[in-house]
Structures
1.
Amino acid sequence: MLATKPTAPRSGRSRRASWLQRLYVPLMLTPVLLTIGVLFFGALIVALLQSFGHAPIYGIEEFPTLRHYRNLFTLPGFWSSVGLTFYYALVPTVVGTILSIYLALMLRRRFRGKGLVQFVYKLPLMIPYLVGVALTIVLFGNGGIIARGMFALGVIESTRDFPRLIYSHAGWGIMIVYLWKQIPFTTLIVYSVLMGLGRESEEAAATLGAHRWQTFWHVTLPQIMPGIVSATVIVFAFNFGSFEVPFILGGGFPNTLPVEAWRAFEDADYSNRLRAMAIVMFIGVLSGAVLFTYLAAYRRFERLRGRQ
Amino acid sequence: MTELRLAALVKEFDDFTAVDHIDLTVAPGSLVALLGPSGCGKTTTLRMVAGLEHPTAGDVLFDGESVVGVPTERRNIGMVFQRYVLFPHMNVAKNVSFGLRMRRVSATEIERKVAEVLEVVQLQDLARRFPSQLSGGQQQRVAIARTVITDPRVLLMDEPLSNLDAKLREEMRAFITRLQRQLGITTLFVTHDQVEAIELADRIGVMFDGRLVQFGTPEEIFNRPRTKRVADFMGTNNLIPGRLDVQRDASTLVSVAGPLQCASGAHHVSGEDAIATVRPEHIDIGTPNGPLQGPNRFTGRIDDAVYYGGTLTYRVVADGLSLQVRDRSTRRFAVGEEVTVHIDPSHLWVFPE
């Protein structure tokens, strides 16, 4: 005879308890899921529908149409705008990451005034981007402190001879602001990963005959890579979608995609708002695709290296 | 083979002296254990030999040549860390070949040597595994393989067995002894475990508070401790305090139990407070009025008896002394029974208090 597990008769109360148990976690998550759902996906769906021509609030109903995307891709300056967006996002991410790794490595050493340096370098994290923008104008503008100083010292004949660092497509000013804010951020992440790692594996490498550069390349960098990847993802995504910095410090038309989206949205002609939504969708898809590819490539690299 | 010498080595951290004038020589191809409680400066000493700490004063010499100015990576040493510190992102083969790869040895040579070393540590089948997939003992063997593959002049081991369980520790102890003899590497070994030091080392240096208190063969340290602290640390029982009375050909320690004759020692000073020590197995035990003759006889009572590993260990209380006595014979004394104990003067070791 087969042994059967004794089953207790289920009371209504215990059934209700198990029903509650199963729904406990989803219920607890409801507030945050609702927020994300309404604020993010709700808005996203509206933007998506509008970009495909469904915008009854502006009296436009041509759903479904790809017209707004087609217009976008043939718009003069659009592809320069895509290029600028990548340029302003990518260069500070790469430069900032390299500088941050260096800074984090230096911060591990013992030196006089280390406590002060560790406090000061984090300050930009607490200050809004707009303050950074203002500081950049005051410092690096053609009428700025550095230009005046150089003029006073006779290095340049007129403040107009000072190289255009802001309001130009080269984007020095934009990238300075990004670096000002993001080097502290990336340094903070890399530094905490380094602290968690300790010095032992580097010491082991040295006892095995690895000099400093070899130790960094073969031992330290591979172990802090996950932290670096997370930091670069966040920094790149922010730069790619950043609006106020290129809007204020950029070189006019064409500007980055977010600025172009804003301009289209602000146009007196409401029908242009559909184009704005098409740009917004395009930014989202592009940024998502880049980061997805980046993360997939990194995971593949780790797998090839044999790590699970 | 390289001779390692530490000369008046000092390390100060801010206002704390971690290592205080250590003089020590490790003969070529021999294994010296630095033994002491945690915080006694033994690891700091090891790190100065490795070049991971810079000495405040003194010198580290390989074959008579100072290496204090030589950075770690050019000292050609091997170091095994307490927590192994394998590179988690490299498999066993990559970990083991690391030192050779950094020295830009050719790929074929690396392959040959890795295979050879992995065979020595019996890990041939695990070359593709990652450290996280290995047991503690296996990780330890990888750590050792990784250091010996570069033929280091000096091998440094920082409590390499303290993270292993008792059985594995014994296996690894035997393995390290075998490997060290086989390769003949000059080795400095740090431990807080006196059994480990005695089993592994040719010479032991006992350290307290940054100072080298005693240096000698395991037998010397074990049987003839120079201070009470060393005796305590080596797990010596039977410490008999008293005052020395030195005659021309013999010394006597006047203890609570009466005078104890001991072999004379050049360092004995009359009238000085001293401690006599004797190993439990060096005390004879017998029935009262039995055949035990000679000086240093006491009558006492068995207070406790413990059977372990073929011998009986008694605690005998005699004339105010509590002595541990180990008896390998087949006779048995019952607790409470009256006995006579006898200590041969040649087995008594006396050192100043």
2.
Amino acid sequence: MSKEKEKCALCFKKEDYHGVWVFAEQHNGTISEVVYELLGVGRRLADQLKEKLGAVLIGFNIKKQAQRLIQYGADDVYVVDIEDAARFLEEDYAEVIVKLVEEYKPAVFLFGATALGKSLAPRVASRLQTGLTADCTSLEVDPEEKVLIQTKPAFGSDVMVSIVCRNKRPQMATVRPGVMKKVEMCAARRGNIIENNHIPPLKLRSQVLNFSRKQTEVQLEQAEVVVAVGRGLGKVENLKLIKELAGALGAAIGATRAVVDAGWISYQHQIGQTGKTVAPKIYIACGISGAIQHLVGMQSSEVIIAINKDPEAPIFDYATYGIVGDLMEVVPLLIKRIKTIKNLS
Amino acid sequence: MRIIVCIKQVPATNEVKIDPKTGTLIREGIESIINPFDLFALEEGLRLKEAHGGCVFVLSMGPLQARISLKEAMAMGADTAVLLSDRAFAGSDTLATSYTLAAGIKKLGGADIILCGKQSTDGETGQVGPGIAAQLDIPHITCVTKIIKVDHAKKRIVVEREVEEGYEEILTTLPVLLTVEKEINRPRFLTVKGIMRAKKTGVVVWTASDLEIDPSRIGLSGSPTEIVKVFSLPRQKRGIIFSGTPEEQVETLVSKLKEAGYLF
């Protein structure tokens, strides 16, 4: 059977592929937040294509979650609920997913750019010999060609690139958590649950022996206020001041990649294309010029305050309020002012 | 133990400076370097060799100038360097790159452990490592922060990897492909002895005809993804830039925030 399928790769016809799929990542029975965001964008794409939205749910004792995926926009949920899946790692997930794709032939397949998704999606794409675009910030359907236009910032410059995968299916992409909007839950939504528990024998070569939870002082994604620093900080010693500002505001600290690469702060704080995506109520960008790679990680913040000595810095195009000035001068004034208000109230 | 480290030559982005007048990147005179993430993979490979014996191969795909990076890897301590270089490889996306590198690994006779950086600093996809593992049909583990134990005889390895919430300790089988985080180690410096040795040894170059590959799966024709548009986001000021002394600006900001109900 598998040999026949291999041969069928030669008689591949993209017209046979229909619908939009999302990978419903779950850990210990809890669906990852990014899945609802994928369902949000997937719903729109499926409607534009006039096709169905499917979700792939793999795990153990997981079936009851399928209804939730439907309530958040899925038409079909492909469930693999088997005991072995409780210990699945990328290789095993990939084998099961490849079989599902070969059987049901989705045209589009989206994964969250999580630790698992970023590792699993390329394995699946490589097995299926199809294209994969990492960290998309926008996904659209070309109305004529019906291909998926996958847009992301280009490397090291202020331009965006749009990528298509014209001749292979499914068209695969990863999307960072926080980038897409989820749709409202609708309890009355109806859909199909398709069970696929007859999976081929798996190798199960890897297993998690132990898990240790991180000490997370940084709750960037949940923070209502984020104070972020860029190269304009000048030197690592100046971070003290930023910490003081964050402390006064009860804010989490974010940073650009340049600051993380310089070793001034850990990667956990990185915001942007290759870091976290945040949308706090207030985002204070200190000494951040506003490279597009950073902007995509914070531009949905409600109020963006930019402090930068360069009046031409692109960050000012995105800022709600801008202060042109030296960080080392402005920030202490701001701290002082905030502390005064706090003492008064 | 046979160890293969995959490296990529990338532009030295850390040396890109911002033009203080225009706020744009200064791109002139940017040199090429080994992808910084790959240095951690190479260092880990060298440490594995020191602990378990064996040899470290370093493998890359790219234009002939990538030989410079491979020589640097040899100067750090790699035993053999191989470059896959052919016009036919040009325009490869991550799928075609994974396929070609996997073919190079097969030609090298495979490995017990294949190491890659977490991602490249130019493409930033992190897709090639897992892609190679899929082509070779071996397990892969990404974001490795520690190699805890290698049992060469039993063909088993235990590593620690970073995920969102914490760290997983994972047991898997050899051969395996690992992509490593920069927390895993501190790469060593080049030594004069190493540089001399690298000069003498040279880099092996293989072209498409040296590899067992399907020509339709390499380069542009083997790359399903295609860039169809490059564009700038429109610049439009959407907010207010304050004026006045720093004190006045801070005052205006605070009152604006209070007005909007954002502060306290």
